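Bench notes, afternoon.
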Amino acid sequence: MALHQQLPVFNPSVPFTTPIQGGLMDGMLITVSGRVLPDADRFSVNLYHGSTVALDLKARYECSLNIEHDTSQKWGYEERKFVTPFERGQLFVLQILVTLGSYKISTNGKPYSEYKHLVPFKSVDRFQVDGKVELNLVAFQLAPHLVAPPGSLKVPYKSIIHGGLYVGKVIIIQGLIKSHPYRIVISLRHKHGIAFDYSPRFDENVVVRNTYENGIWGRADRSEPMPFQKGDPTLVAIFCGQHQYEVFVNGEKAHTYKHRFTKLEEIDVLDIRGGIELTFVQA
């Protein structure tokens, strides 16, 4: 299996450990989405070579007045930040980008810290998450230009999916549902149409999925109940499988949709419209 096709893991239990197939590589992006538990005292994200810790990220909540983010490496030096982007009870997206010189760490789409390699990254072969956290998704992808640049998240939102879709590709959308939304539309487009149109319709209290080809909409798939709540934060992950899309909402599998347009590599645009304020997009 090619590295960029290592399949993502949805809703794993914590503690969570997985081998990294083929090891790390320059340009590899590790994406972790989840929610910090309301009573969290700490959680950690680790990269290992055997029993050697190559990277140890810790979020600590020792008391309400002293929330700490600790980036450390065993047998190396320790870096600490006393402001954490991981708030108790809140959804988050953590990303670790592997480069030749360092790990570049971002949270919710914003750069957070950088850590130079003390253990050769090519020898890293295992990933682990532990502590008071729920996981929605863990994904490994070779994907430059994945993250929407700061200031580009206004709705309507449109971005290029570099290289098109492929089996194992995950698109992540995080945002806040507006208090009085009408509809939200998430579309995966190609040059001549829409391969997958995903539309929560609050006016009808249903979610509609469809495809637009040759100037004609196909038969719509409609389902209840509505997995989105007005005024609430939400995290949507769209997984491109071999035969269908799988849509996860806040970590729960909500919908599937069989591929009607099968030339996945030609699907190269993500389009988002309607009643959502975006905070993070990975396409």
